[in-house]
Amino acid sequence: MSYAVKEMFVTLQGEGAQTGRASVFCRFAGCNLWSGREQDRATAACTFCDTDFIGTNGEGGGRFDTAEALAATIAACWTGIADESGRRYVVFTGGEPLLQIDDALIAAVKAQGFEIAVETNGTIAAPAGIDWVCVSPKPSSTLVQTDGAELKLIYPQPDLPPELFEKLSFRHFWLQPMDGPDRIANTQAAVAYCLRHPRWRLSLQTHKLIGIP
Ligand code: SF4
Fold it and tell me: Where does substrate bind (predicted)?
């Protein structure tokens, strides 16, 4: 199988329980809940996406014919981090990364010494071997991946109240204010909800706050 990667870069994870951790971000092209084209947004299952995941033309992007080739490129990206004292860490994101991640890729990336995280919309079951599964449920879709390390709910979404998810098997439950023109009001609403429901914690997109990718 070949893999289509929109972009790949080294940064700090900006969200959730791994915030601040040095990471290779590998953004796969394509999503099953939106084509990525503006003319399709109104009729898509997921309508608030702020990510460009079309094509393979981003920084570090490309088409990789084998799992080993993609894993080697991820490892080369990590060497941009001078100090190797921390465990190598790759975040597979998208788009929807589970459209492309398979056993061969997991094995090849592990062979390069990486811990693997995935950020998924939860509509596809995660294969075994992923160390950190972050699920961010979206409307008009069926949640298949119902366990993992963290559940990150973009808030508010009228069709997806937090109560729908709090009994699922995740270690961390995050509310992340929806970005966009109502970001301040959404943040206030998320803070208020977390204060009333301490099972949920506030997740901020800290990379945006400090201006890193
Ligand atoms: S599921 Fe994620 S990647 Fe896909 S359209 Fe929604 S926010 Fe974007």
Answer: 12-14, 27, 93, 213
Candidate from 7, 27, 31, 142 with most ligand 1 atoms within 8 A of CB, to mutate: 31
119 pocket-lining for ligand 1 (C-beta < 6 Å):
no
User: pTM, whole model, 2 decimals?
Assistant: 0.96
Contact in structure between 150 and 170 (CB atoms under 8 Å)? yes
- Tally the C-alpha atoms within 13 A of residue 81's C-alpha that lie toward its C-beta: 20
Residues catalogued as catalytic:
25, 31, 46, 49-51, 119, 207
Tens-place pLDDT, residues 88-136: 999 999 999 999 999 999 999 999 999 999 999 999 999 999 999 999 9
Of the residues 37, 96, 123, which should be mutated to test ligand 1's pocket, given the most ligand atoms within 8 Å of the CB? 96
Query: Per-domain residue ranges for the chain?
Result: 3-154
CA distance readout (Å), 3 to 39, 55, 63, 102: 26, 11, 6, 10
Fold that domain 3-154 belongs to in CATH:
TIM Barrel (3.20.20)
pLDDT digit string (tens) for 15-58?
Answer: 999 999 999 999 999 999 999 999 999 999 999 999 999 999 99
